[in-house]
């Protein structure tokens, strides 16, 4: 099964990816998936085993090089086969694998931060996690629309109130935070942010243009 991974490594510095971003890209690349580097988020696609191994390495390498946040969205390109063997978390062979424990320990907090969950078995739309030929768990990803909601909620928490109640300068700061986290790379994000702020799309574009020219 092929999967697609979209990842955003912070802090972001325009035009200067930095060693933490380069380490993340290299980790995915050396596990066999060619990375398409974007202005904010980057993405890669490939066999599940390669992507899973690359993501695990990316967490370690990016944080070792100074990353402060790594956001990941995983999407499956097809339905999950019902014949995949699933190893329960209580399985002794799985529990005895130190590497497997480290891998799942690395995936869980990232999945939680994105609103996704690591589950024992996969269903259609989930991303099964294989380890040495067996499916040991699955990531139930957050739909991209919910990922944006998650980012908006996070920014509202940091700004101390709903986006619609912020002043003009605070709204500009909130747009800057969302922009840094790759929110505007998501489909229809401008409309969603404008609705949350109770402003027009043109206002959001003006805020973004001001960021680019500053």
Key words describing this protein structure:
2 domains, 47% helix, 7 strands, 19% strand, three-stranded antiparallel beta sheet, four-stranded antiparallel beta sheet, globular, 214 residues, alpha+beta, single chain
Characterize this entry briefly.
The chain has 214 residues and is of the alpha+beta class. It has helices spanning 18-29, 48-64, 92-95, 98-113, 144-159, 168-180, 189-197, 201-213, and strands at residues 2-10, 35-37, 42-47, 69-76, 117-119, 127-131, 134-140. The chain contains 8 helices and 7 strands; from the N terminus they run βαββαβααβββαααα.
Structure description:
- With 214 residues, the chain is of the alpha+beta class.
- Helices cover 47% and strands 19% of the residues.
- A four-stranded antiparallel beta sheet has the order 2-3-1-4. The chain has a three-stranded antiparallel beta sheet with strand order 5-7-6.
- The N and C termini lie far apart (44 Å).
Question: What is the element layout, followed by pairings?
Answer:
Blueprint: E1 2-10, H1 18-29, E2 35-37, E3 42-47, H2 48-64, E4 69-76, H3 92-95, H4 98-113, E5 117-119, E6 127-131, E7 134-140, H5 144-159, H6 168-180, H7 189-197, H8 201-213
Antiparallel strand pairs: 1-3, 1-4, 2-3, 5-7, 6-7
């Amino acid at each position: 099964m092929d999967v697609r991974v979209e990842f955003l490594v912070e802090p972001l510095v325009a035009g200067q990816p930095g060693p933490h971003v380069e380490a993340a890209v290299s980790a995915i690349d050396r596990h066999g998936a060619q990375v398409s580097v974007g202005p904010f988020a980057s993405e890669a696609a490939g066999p599940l085993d390669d992507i899973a191994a690359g993501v695990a390495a990316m967490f370690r390498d990016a944080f070792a090089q100074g990353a402060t946040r790594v956001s990941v969205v995983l999407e499956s390109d097809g339905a999950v086969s019902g014949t995949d063997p699933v190893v329960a978390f209580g399985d002794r062979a799985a529990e005895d694998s130190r590497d497997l424990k480290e891998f799942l320990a690395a995936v869980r907090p990232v999945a939680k931060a994105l609103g996704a969950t690591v589950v024992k078995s996969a269903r259609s739309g989930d991303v099964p996690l294989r380890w040495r030929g067996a499916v040991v768990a699955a990531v139930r990803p957050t739909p991209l629309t919910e990922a944006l909601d998650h980012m908006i909620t996070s920014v509202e928490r940091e700004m101390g109130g709903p986006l619609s109640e912020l002043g003009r300068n605070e709204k500009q700061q909130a747009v800057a935070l969302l922009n840094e986290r790759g929110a505007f790379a998501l489909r229809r994000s401008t409309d969603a942010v404008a609705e949350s702020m109770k402003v027009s799309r043109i206002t959001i574009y003006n805020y973004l243009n001001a960021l680019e020219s500053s």
